[in-house]
Amino acid sequence: MASLNQRPSTDEFAVYDPADGSVVGMAQEMDANTLDLMVGNARRAFSGWREQLPVSRRDALRRWAEIMRGRKEEFAQLMTREQGKPIAESRGEIDYGLGFIEWFAEEGVRPTGEILAPHLSGSQGIVQQIPIGVAALITPWNFPFAMIARKASAALAAGCTAIVKPSPETPLTALAMEDAAHAAGLPEGVFSVATSETAALSEQLVAHRDIGVISFTGSTAVGQKILSSAAAGVKRVLLELGGHAPFIVLDDADIDRAVQDAVGAKFTTGGQDCLAVNRFFVPETLRDTFVERFVAATRKLQVGRGIDPQTAIGPMTTAAQAESCREQIRDAVDQGAQLAFTGTAPSGNCWLAPTILTGVTDEMRIAREETFGPVAAISTYSEIGDVIGHVNRSRYGLAAYVHGGDLDRATRVAQQLDYGMIAINTARMTGPPVPFGGMRQSGLGREGARHGLIAFTETRYLCICSN
Question: Which Pfam family, just one, is annotated for this protein (predicted)?
């Protein structure tokens, strides 16, 4: 685990608390040679890990999860300090992430493969799913624990070894997970963490000859670069990229229920979530009622340090992301949007008060770009068909939300949306059994569910002749 309260040196970088800028701890600034040794170690470990019985890998993953569950409060406090999210959300994220480890531990022992009907005389065909090799897992700062847990548990259960490259904003949670993996007795090289403050190390990891599969969660722009780099080695690439989630309120929706879900789908993690709502579409006839109740509910959210148990919205993790949101707000207001609500927040570059905009139109940046912050954009409509056509033309296609009183009608609307995940009359939809992923420029492949395990395997066919 990274040492705390040290001064930066030439081979370390500082990790800062976004709430006040204080140093949370230090992480190693790894160079290309160190990374090469780490990948080589993972490659050697793969030979033994893939040959372990699935039940042995299951037991190892269970021990890892058990140790981290016992250190839950320590992990939560660390995550809140380096990421900024409310402590209750950090605790919830740990439970959520451990659910993936426990789920994939069991999924990895279930039989896979096929026995084919003979197509050649005296032969038998067998189809196997075998682990690809060393997996590079590049994770973001918004969910420092859960993203690693979801990716790594699937990779390890499939028989791969894994190298995690966490965001430089939140490497300490990853290093704590590595420490727990060692305590659980995972063989050396099975789960490793590579840290760096620059993008160069990620680029070297993606391009390394011994990396067989890459799983990345982050922006669409970076995902496109990874896809291009991986193409040279024809490597398997799994991408969970940006989103621009619409929240569609139908004219027969239960407004109080819709508002409750709107607050959760917009402001959890301070809106720093690829599933967070970017734009609300509300019938013209319900506009005033929805906005009034949404503002009233948002006004109750306390903004402050994540460590305060009363806090609902913490600081933005980076000052750059906070400024990006401010620019979107200014652009929208300059083009005619109205500020229906602006809350209060402490002073500082990483702080941004929850904001609600009405009268948002297609020309505004916030209507096209991912916001990734506590800014809600509301538009009105008269014809639901126009909304469906509009949201399906987005370059993103990760998540969408539909609220309606007639469940059959709401489901019909949802089925016309070209999005990977759609929540109907709820703000919650993800978990271990769910194939998490999107369409268009929101990514490639799926995480979670059986799909998430198979993603780390290759298909091999054996033709066995008996004579």
Answer: Aldedh
